[in-house]
Amino acid sequence: MAMGQPVRLVLDASLLLEPSATGEAAAVALRPGAEALLRRLRYSNLSVAISYVDGMSTNESGFLEMVTSSHSFGYIPLLAKSGDCSPNDLMLEWSRTSSCFYMTSRVDKGLISELRNHNWRVVSVGNECSIEVPGVLNVGRLQELLLTLATLIKREIGDSSVLVIGYVMKQSREEDFARRGAFPIYPSKDGLIFVPLSFELPLSSQLQEVDTVLHKITDEILKIDPNCSIDFPKGISFSSGMSEIIRFVEEHPDICIIDQFKNIYPLLDRLQIQNILVQLQELGTEGKTKLRAPYSLKVDNFHDGELDKHIAEANLSFPLIVKPQVACGVSDAHNMALVFQIEEFSNLSVPLPAVLQEYIDHGSKIFKFYVIGDKVFHAVRNSMPNASLLKPSSGGEPLTFNSLKTLPVATKEQQLQTRVQDSKSVDTDLVEEAAKFLKELLGLTIFGFDVVVQEGTGDHVIVDLNYLPSFKEVPDSVAVPAFWDAIRQTYESKRGKAQT
């Protein structure tokens, strides 16, 4: 099939419904793995339909109609007429204009032979569907279908430049990327096909089928020992699936990973992030806007009798924002506090070791920058108000929050009080220079960082750095093509280096 030719996928109802769902009064349910399959196909850029045959119960038929409607799929009769093995006219018409795939777990040799005669590609699923028909591919489990489909599509395109990208990330992040069209199974304009790697199946066989692996390794962290943070990844415990991928990559160093695990480990540790950002001073030019890291201090004990002395030596003054040294991957990595005086450390609940960081008055505006390959994007978001507006509400206690959930964003009234800052614009040329510097330094394809502009001095301070953010503030029409370009460019660059 040529690029641009539509792909039609028909899923037989037998593939989706539990075999026990029979009879008018029987409860109807999806097979394990069917919901995940349907969810991923919804945003696949494929034309998907679910087929049925006469004789289904009212419960089954109604259930399937509900499923197809919720996922915007077609719902079609499989046979031309009851008792006949010939496909319906619509399926025959599709075969003249599209590349068509039929997937089933139901044994019907006559139907399958007819479909094969009309150039349909047939995949059977499950040991109970061992069909001895030439050209039929049999797979053991439902979870294998997406990777099987992806490899079949690539094979039929017959273009070696088409890449199959296997990805690993948590469901909420995957759904966000997929919903925005970033994970098509039908090849993107850059010739990329995206499929999830399943931890329910042997990973070695899956990894051998994909051209490269895109991952959000931090989604698979179970535990981090901060005492080992200087020597990541020794102090990190990953899920069993991620651990298997890490072992595979160690044994097969030629596999293309986006991005190398070792390049991401420093971003798990706020102290290492600080050491990275300090190097931005190399970009400083006299007479121009200053770009810098926030002043900070590592602490292992909030009850240190000389803590106030250490704070002063680190060029810090109150208020201070207190962050766990572990930056991501664990549940309490984003539990933080704003501390206004030394006494407030006595009952502080932020995990140790921690990093004390200057709180920068920034007019309630934060600039989120995204580096996607060679392109840099940014967006402006409301942020925490200036310290003078926060202190009255603290009641003499540290102001605690989770930066992902309960960040104290400035109210409209507080924003009006700092509207002078709103009129300031960030020096994008300076920050884009920093983005290129960090890209080279980190060796990452896609990452993000947050910039605040300090009131009074105008200093541009980078306060956070993270790998593979969602870049949801960037319009999909711009961000998604940049995302595809970045993956292809990184793949070709790494393949080129491997072959020299």
Automatic annotation (TrEMBL):
Needed cofactors: Mg(2+)
One Pfam family in the UniProt entry: Ins134_P3_kin
Record protein name field: Inositol-tetrakisphosphate 1-kinase 6
Lineage: Eukaryota, Viridiplantae, Streptophyta, Embryophyta, Tracheophyta
InterPro entries assigned: Inositol_tetrakis-P_1-kinase, InsP(3)kin_ATP-grasp
GO molecular function: ATP binding; inositol-1,3,4-trisphosphate 5-kinase activity; inositol-1,3,4-trisphosphate 6-kinase activity; inositol-3,4,5,6-tetrakisphosphate 1-kinase activity; metal ion binding
Organism: Urochloa decumbens
Domain Inositol 1,3,4-trisphosphate 5/6-kinase ATP-grasp, chain residue ranges per copy: 294-476
EC number per UniProt: 2.7.1.159
